[in-house]
Design goal:
single chain, alpha/beta, D-Maltodextrin-Binding Protein, domain 2, 2 domains, 14 helices, 11 strands
Length: about 350
């Protein structure tokens, strides 16, 4: 009888001890994030270098979690990976978020933005002397973009075409677009022998291109959008957020801290980005770009609805968000976004 009581007491004690651990481990033990090729994701380099997600996860009582970082070219591959459950967070231009938001609206896999990451212009550069504006493109020209029709560069080119030739002609240059990663597109443009004579790129690659004599800018995204706009954002599924509320908050807290670190010392942030991406760029050169007055690292969404309005007008999406808040989870709604 005493043995049974002792065993019963031991089992009860084990349940009481293990219960808190089970609650902690109810959330994921791994977090997987994906990014593309550019300086629009500098916070990620800081988060990875300083293990900020791990730090905030511990502070939230989640214990030790593993964080994995991956890189894709263009929003299509990343969005497919997100819906397949291969990654938990993806990042890219605003049109990539809008496309997946509309596709998943009302489903268990509904997707929304976590926050913005940066506001900065991207440039359409050309090596052809006769091309001074998009009006000079011919059927012989080719324009490299990260992803045809769906990348932020491709959509911005459509917006530029619509402004020049009318909404009905928004796709005028879609047939000239070629899908290439920014690093590969830069190599092709600089080589001079490739069919790629124009690249709608991202920093730092667009500035590397401009260092070559004869390469010039024919379009700035800020001009198309009528001013500054969000360049990169991060998004995830409602399913992940609801199943892992502490982890979600830890990732957002890590983003906030990384943004503060970046803006406090941009030179140190440039050094971290170089080290984490194994870039051959110099700190002085990169620091100059990061410190440009047009470059802003902020979690506040800016001018996102201009993309949504255009994509809905031309039929790229059937339903559009009523406000920018429809595109983002509530945790970021307190900022002055647009």
């Amino acid at each position: 009888m005493k043995i049974r009581i002792a065993i019963s007491w031991l089992l009860t004690s084990l349940v009481l001890v293990l219960a808190p651990l089970q609650q902690v481990r109810a959330e994921v033990s791994e977090v997987r994030l994906a990014q593309q090729f550019s300086m629009g994701y500098m916070q990620f380099a800081i988060m990875e270098r300083n293990q900020l997600i791990e730090k905030h996860a511990r502070a939230a009582g989640l214990g030790e979690i593993k964080v994995f970082w991956d890189r894709f070219n263009g929003p299509n591959f990343m969005n497919d990976a997100l819906l397949a459950g291969k990654v938990d967070y993806v990042s890219g231009g605003v049109p990539g978020l809008i496309t997946l938001w509309e596709k998943t609206l009302g489903t268990p896999q509904e997707v929304r933005g976590v926050s913005a990451l940066s506001s900065q212009p991207f440039l359409l550069n050309s090596r052809s002397p006769h091309i001074k504006s998009i009006r000079d493109f011919t059927e012989k020209d080719r324009i490299a973009v990260p992803s045809i029709k769906s990348s932020v560069q491709a959509v911005t080119l459509q917006m530029a075409a619509a402004k020049e030739f009318g909404d009905a002609n928004y796709g005028k240059y879609d047939n000239l677009a070629v899908s290439m990663s920014p690093p590969d597109a830069t190599v092709a443009l600089l080589a001079g022998a490739s069919e790629i004579n124009n690249v709608f790129s991202v920093p730092p690659f667009q500035f590397q291109q401009l260092e070559r004599a004869g390469i010039h800018t024919i379009l700035n995204s800020f001009d198309v959008m009528g001013g500054p706009h969000t360049f990169t954002v991060i998004w995830t599924t409602a399913k992940f957020r609801e199943a892992n509320p502490k982890t979600y908050k830890a990732v957002l807290a890590a983003l906030q801290e990384a943004t503060e670190i970046l803006n406090k010392d941009k030179r140190a942030a440039a050094q971290m980005w170089i080290e984490q991406t194994k870039s051959t760029l110099t700190v002085d050169w990169l620091h100059k770009i990061v410190s440009s007055p047009q470059v802003l690292y902020t979690l506040v969404p800016n001018n996102t609805m201009k993309y949504a309005d255009f994509m809905h007008k031309v039929g790229s999406i059937r339903k559009k968000p009523a406000t920018w808040k429809d595109l983002f989870f509530p945790e970021i709604h307190g900022v002055q976004g647009s």
